[in-house]
Specification:
Blueprint (H helix, E strand, L loop, with lengths): L5 E3 L7 H7 L10 H28 L2 H8 L6 H10 L1 E9 L2 E10 L4 E8 L11 H4 L7 E4 L4 E11 L8 E12 L13 E13 L1 H9 L12 H7 E15 L8 E2 L5 E9 L2 E14 L3 E6 L4 E3 L9 E4 L4 E3 L1 E5 L3 E5 L9 E5 L5 E2 L4
Parallel strand pairs: 1-8
Antiparallel strand pairs: 2-3, 3-4, 4-7, 5-8, 6-7, 8-9, 10-12, 11-12, 11-14, 12-13, 13-18, 15-16, 15-19, 17-18, 19-20
């Protein structure tokens, strides 16, 4: 199986559904034209309402619902305005073997980007009721590459989300990633940079539960951690291509605004510094604190891995002008940089201050 394949949990779905989906027909009653006429009118009305609903959903942005689910409460009007004003609606679709993948939209804050893909299976396949997140392998769902060799993917997260359209055979797939460029003069989000999403084949993966129990009670009995051999893995996880095709989408991001700087001079804060795998709570001099709507990049002089938390495990908090707070979580670190991210967009024009875990307050640089 190709590593770029989409793995779908259809092992629990009766194979006859595939046959029915491929040979789906509408029964005709030649004896009662009035009934057929009424059904046709009802179908047209239903289709019109569906199209209107889809148009409204599309117009309001595909990511609004996603970020609403990530938020502890309703998004603010400023956050909704930011999403609607920044989300790049694309809407390109491709269909192979009765499976449709749509590149719905994208959004970026100059550092972090989100991409929304819509998946439509044959209507007899119920994606919503299957435990898709347990069986889809996100890093093998789609290959995301740039036409600029200096740009690579620094980090990537992905996952399945309901698209809230009340159709059981459709779901959204959200990709969150951060690019890394060797040459800082290259902007990965410039219109000159082309990004391609490549998906090859749709594969059903099923697990041989009886064989798994056999291994647990036999060869690997009493072992908490063990590695399967290639033969055991192939027998345990059986894969079958259920849709042949190649889905390719090429696009460029729309450029966004600049981030917000909150450090005008080197500032000392307390944080956990890890050297030789041993963390120590100590002073750290930070030289920049750049806030973007989806992430924060902190530069420091520790020359080690730094995590901005305190002994109470409190994190960095963004305090908005209306008094609401958004917590940032540790995402990645190098010897001189720490990246934090958040689950909802931060409207940087509405930021009042940053509260560091040690109590230090950072205010926007004027």
């Amino acid at each position: 199986m190709n590593g770029k394949s989409l793995l779908i949990t259809l092992g629990t779905i009766n194979p006859r559904y595939y046959v029915e989906a491929e040979n789906d027909t509408i029964r005709k009653d030649k004896k009662n034209k009035n009934v057929r006429h009424s059904i046709l009118i009802a179908a047209i009305i239903a289709l019109t309402l569906l199209l209107v609903g889809c148009a409204l959903a599309y117009a309001s942005g595909w990511l609004t619902g996603f970020f609403n689910k990530q938020s502890n409460g309703p998004l603010s009007s400023a956050q909704l305005d930011y999403i609607r004003g920044t989300e790049q609606l694309i809407g390109e679709s491709q269909t192979h073997d009765k499976w449709t993948i749509q590149l719905k939209s994208a959004i970026n804050d100059g550092r972090t980007a989100y991409i929304v893909l819509g998946i439509t299976a044959p209507k007899k396949i119920d994606l919503e009721s299957t435990e898709t997140t347990a069986y889809f392998l996100g890093d093998e769902f789609a290959e995301l590459v740039s036409n600029n060799r200096q740009i690579e993917i620094l980090s990537e997260e992905s996952g399945w989300e309901s698209d809230d359209d009340e159709l059981s055979n459709t779901m959204d797939y959200i990709i969150r990633f951060e690019p890394m460029q060797e040459d800082c003069s290259v902007d990965p989000y410039s219109t000159d940079v082309k990004w391609t999403i490549h998906i090859e084949n749709i594969v059903c993966q099923s697990e041989d539960r009886e064989y798994y129990l056999e291994l647990l009670n036999g060869k690997y009995k009493g072992q908490n951690d063990f590695w399967l051999t290639a033969e055991e893995n192939d027998r345990l996880y059986q894969q079958e291509v259920i849709a042949n095709g190649i889905w390719n989408f090429t696009f460029s991001f729309q450029q966004s605004g600049n981030g917000l700087e909150l450090v005008s001079a080197p500032t000392t804060v307390r944080a956990y510094v890890t050297r030789k795998r041993i963390p120590s709570y100590e002073d750290v001099i930070i030289t920049t604190f750049t806030l973007n709507p989806f992430s924060v990049e902190i530069s420091h002089k520790a020359d080690a891995l730094v995590t901005f938390t305190n002994p109470k495990e409190e994190t960095v908090v963004v305090v908005m002008r209306d008094g609401s707070e958004i917590e940032l979580r540790h995402f990645s670190a190098t010897r001189n940089t720490t990246v934090l991210n958040c689950s909802v967009p931060i409207v940087i024009t509405e930021v009042d201050h940053i509260r560091m875990p040690d109590g230090t307050v950072l205010t926007p640089v004027q």
